[in-house]
């Protein structure tokens, strides 16, 4: 196959060509209440060709590797129809590598019946809790072998395994509805989602507890975010603004996201990097064959870098960061996050809340929206903080504001970094892409909280 690919790339009139082939196996299991809505395994094989000519891209995807050279020529012809300018694409040294994975408990080796038995047990725990109305469980796993080759001489075979699990308990009483969710995942180790019976039980009980919890009074508060919600905040509200294709396509964002600009105090460091090992967003090479890196987006409060593909790096005169990713062979790679997090400092959680007379502790996430620098997030749980102690449970609160003002208002960062491995990221119809995000506990000295 390597020789066939190499021959298909030779002798064409194009600035750049790449071929990506993919073999995959996947499992999906979905519950809605006591109904098993979907269960099954699928396998697929396909690929794509991407060609760059005079700044224009041609893209062809397919399910058969027969007549591969014809598919290359079709992508080049498409690119010629589009291209009218000089191609901008950063240089990359040719690489040859084979990347394998070693997993303690590969999900592909776990029988489908065993997976169903485990999720039946989790579902029974949720539904047997008094006042729980229904449940949602969504599980997926995948194993992929990706072959990437380019006209520059790069040839990489890379194996990837991924697991994702999302559980939700929905409680109701007297017309009120509340829910709590639990998201987990791993880079292929099935044992990461086993043995969760006690966590599932507590999740269901917390959903019931929310039915009788009071609402917070709306206004500005000192707010402490747990690692899950802080991780979602840094991913959604700041990480997407750091994707270079968003920046060079938006003049207003260019004016805001100026490298060297101060966005926080010296204790604030925000990182994205697939080179951080063992996380769902980790890999050795991105989908353009660029080695993974660890990129400081903000270092000591200063905007230092952004996330790039080879094209965006060339357009903006910066270095590629290894952040070009495609969810599968049906799509071309675009700039995406990997593992995005706030680096830890030295404070304990007790230190962070000790001098707060009245504030709010917000945990986990329920949903949210962003519009450039403005954000709105719903916390799944919230508690009052009174005189340095965690007090009564509250109904879920909504946090909103300007991301850059909020970054500047972070005045304390904990020592307890945790990475959220559940869920996935969506962008331009490519969803859910495996990522992780995280943070230590952080304190925001002023944040708008919606309530009664």
Mind explaining what this structure looks like?
The chain has 452 residues and is of the alpha+beta class. It has two domains: 2-210, PmbA/TldD fold; 219-450, no CATH class. It has helices at residues 2-9, 68-82, 112-127, 197-210, 227-239, 244-248, 251-256, 310-316, 349-353, 403-408, and strands at residues 16-32, 35-53, 56-62, 96-99, 132-150, 155-173, 176-186, 219-225, 270-273, 294-299, 302-303, 324-325, 334-335, 339-342, 358-363, 367-371, 374-378, 381-386, 389-394, 398-402, 410-413, 418-420, 425-427, 430-433, 436-439, 442-450. The strands form five sheets. Strands 8, 15, 16, 17, 18, 19, 20, 21 and 26 form a nine-stranded mixed β-sheet that branches. Strands 1, 2, 3, 4, 5, 6 and 7 form a seven-stranded mixed β-sheet that branches. Strands 11-10-9-14-25-22 form a six-stranded mixed β-sheet, with helices on one face. Strand 23 (425-427) and strand 24 form a beta hairpin. Helix 1 runs parallel beside helix 2 and helix 3 (112-127) runs parallel beside helix 4 (197-210). It is globular and about 70 Å long. The model has no long low-confidence stretch (mean pLDDT 96).
Short description:
With about 450 residues, this protein is α+β, with helices and mostly antiparallel strands. Helix content is about 20%, strand content about 40%. It has 2 domains: about 1-210, PmbA/TldD fold, CATH 3.30.2290.10; about 220-450, no CATH class.
């Amino acid at each position: 196959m390597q020789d066939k690919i190499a021959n298909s790339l030779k002798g064409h009139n194009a600035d750049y060509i790449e071929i990506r082939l993919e073999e995959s196996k996947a499992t999906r299991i979905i519950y809605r209440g006591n109904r098993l809505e979907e269960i099954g395994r699928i396998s697929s094989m396909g690929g794509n060709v991407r060609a760059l000519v005079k700044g224009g891209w041609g893209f062809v995807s397919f399910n058969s590797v027969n007549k591969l050279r014809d598919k290359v020529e079709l992508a080049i012809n498409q690119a010629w129809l589009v291209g009218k300018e000089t191609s901008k694409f950063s240089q990359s040294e040719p690489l040859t590598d084979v990347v394998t994975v070693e997993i303690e408990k590969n999900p592909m080796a776990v029988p489908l019946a065993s997976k169903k038995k485990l999720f039946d047990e989790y579902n029974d725990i949720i539904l047997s809790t008094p006042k729980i109305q229904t449940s949602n469980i969504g599980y997926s796993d995948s194993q992929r072998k990706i072959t990437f080759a380019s006209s520059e001489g790069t040839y990489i075979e890379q194996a990837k395994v991924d697991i994702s699990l999302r559980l939700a308990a929905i409680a109701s009483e007297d017309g009120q509805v509340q829910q709590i969710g639990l998201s987990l995942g791993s880079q292929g180790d099935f044992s990461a989602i086993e043995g969760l019976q006690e966590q599932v039980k507590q999740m269901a009980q917390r959903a019931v507890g929310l039915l009788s919890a009071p609402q917070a009074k709306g206004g500005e508060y000192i707010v402490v975010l747990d690692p899950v919600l802080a991780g979602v905040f840094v991913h959604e509200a700041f990480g997407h603004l750091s994707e270079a294709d968003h920046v060079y396509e938006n003049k207003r964002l260019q004016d805001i996201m100026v490298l060297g600009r101060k966005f926080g105090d010296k204790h604030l460091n925000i990182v994205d990097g697939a080179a951080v090992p063992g996380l769902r967003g980790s890999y050795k090479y991105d989908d353009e064959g660029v080695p993974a890196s660890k990129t400081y987006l903000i270092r000591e409060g200063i905007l230092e870098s952004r996330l790039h593909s080879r094209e965006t790096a060339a357009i903006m005169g910066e270095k590629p960061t290894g952040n070009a990713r495609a969810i599968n062979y049906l799509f071309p790679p675009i700039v995406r996050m990997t593992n995005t997090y706030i680096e830890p400092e030295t404070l304990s959680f007790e230190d962070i809340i000790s001098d707060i007379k009245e504030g709010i502790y917000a945990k986990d996430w329920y949903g949210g929206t962003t519009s450039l620098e403005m954000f709105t997030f719903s916390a799944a749980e919230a508690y009052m903080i009174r005189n340095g102690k965690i007090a009564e449970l509250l109904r879920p609160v909504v946090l909103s504001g300007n991301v850059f003002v909020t970054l500047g208002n972070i005045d304390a960062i904990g020592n307890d970094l945790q990475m959220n491995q559940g869920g996935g990221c969506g962008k331009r119809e490519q969803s859910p892409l495996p990522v992780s995000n995280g943070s230590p506990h952080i304190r925001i000295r002023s944040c708008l909280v919606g309530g009664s």
